[in-house]
Design brief:
This protein has 368 residues and is of the alpha+beta class. It has 6 helices and 21 strands.
């Protein structure tokens, strides 16, 4: 674990001359689900998200500390996919900047004065250079923040939307584009040869608002909601066990090395991956150092050295274009993190040689 030089892209997306929109934070995701009632049960009755509004085609959900209309939209559709990664911007003028920025990049841009979802006004959706459907908005309906309504809290209350995670073939190329958009890298995973496997990028002062994970893409790896404490995550596990829904737990609970956060990964009824997340760290200083992890470090993905299940590396949700069609995938040509760490020839370590301590805890990558 070291402070590293900036990631360098071999095939960068050109930097627009237009000023990028001033993004404040990740704000909501629009998910297409194939059985709205079943998905509503999972997100509301099991995970405890709050219904702001609903109709026969969509459910608008928010976390307990949120004051904007929603953090998650569930929309009935024929194919389970992601329709939008939505970011709040600092003011209405930023939408003009978003249009100019993405128009200069040659991206498809749509703007609706009445918004793309209920509760959101003037907003811009783009099919970005990586193939992801991004939305930018400022005007949004305010609703009651439930932070003080402890009578409504469950032991596993979800209090904030924390981040997205995106799968893309060329991580350095994605990082360069996101830096042009005003994001900053906080952590990354590389190997000794300089291959970049993943990077975490932020606008708010936490470890990330989104991450770029190397793989065939564009796809959505997960959307993450925060709890206050790690015991809230354990309570969610207990609840899932009591409901005989433990098969929805894909990975964890555990603590990440990257981000230092306590985590749990679940799969919703359509297979969309949801992370429950807590206790990362502050990154808001201008000289906040970038932390680079060796891809062979056992503790990068789980601080306790627990193995990562293969589905976590290989499976992800498709994303839609602005017409609602699934985006075709581009193959990753760099090595995959799974292949170099849990493949037949992969070795990982907890302590390397040459550190002044006895090397230890080398593991065959296929040890699952």
């Amino acid at each position: 674990m070291t402070v590293t030089d900036p990631i360098q892209a071999r095939n960068p997306i050109r930097t627009p001359e237009a000023t990028p929109p001033d993004v404040v934070r990740c704000a909501y995701m629009e998910l297409v689900v194939t059985d709205l009632a079943r998905s509503r049960h999972f997100y509301v009755d099991v995970l405890g998200l709050v219904v702001t509004e609903e109709d026969e085609n969509a459910v608008y959900l928010r976390s307990f500390e949120e004051f904007i209309h929603h953090n998650l939209v569930l929309r009935q559709g024929p194919v389970a996919a992601v329709a939008a990664f939505a970011y709040r911007v600092r003011g209405a003028a930023e939408l003009d900047r978003a249009v100019a920025f993405y128009t200069e990049l040659g991206c498809r841009v749509e703007r609706r004065a009445t918004g793309f979802t209920k509760g959101v006004g003037d907003s811009v959706r783009v099919q970005d250079p990586l193939g992801f459907p991004y939305e930018f908005f400022y005007d949004v309906a305010h609703v009651e923040r439930l932070a003080w309504h402890y009578e409504l809290y469950s032991p596993g209350a979800l209090v904030r939307l924390d981040h997205f995670n995106q799968v893309t073939p060329d991580v350095p190329r994605a990082v360069k584009y996101m830096e042009d958009l005003g994001f900053r890298v906080t952590e990354d995973i590389q190997d000794a040869g300089g291959t970049v496997y993943a990077a975490w990028l932020r606008r708010k002062s936490t470890v990330h608002d989104t991450a770029m994970t190397g793989g065939d893409g564009p796809r959505m790896h997960h959307v993450a909601f925060a709890t206050h404490e790690k015991h809230n995550i354990i309570a969610i596990c207990d609840k899932l066990g009591a409901l005989r829904m433990s098969d929805l737990i894909e990975r964890g609970p555990g603590r990440h090395g990257v981000s230092n956060a306590f985590y749990l990964y679940l799969r919703d009824p359509d297979g969309h991956r949801i992370e429950i997340y807590t206790q990362d760290y502050y990154t808001g200083d201008p000289d906040n150092p970038v932390v680079t992890w060796d891809v062979h470090d056992n503790q990068r993905r789980d601080w306790w050295g627990s193995p990562v299940v293969p589905s976590w590396y290989t499976e992800a949700s498709p994303v839609l274009d602005l017409d609602g069609n699934p985006q075709p995938l581009a193959k990753r040509t760099d090595e995959s993190e799974m292949a170099v760490t849990i493949g037949a020839d992969g070795f990982s370590y907890t302590r390397k040689s040459g550190t002044g301590r006895t090397p230890g805890e080398y593991k065959l990558g296929a040890q699952l």
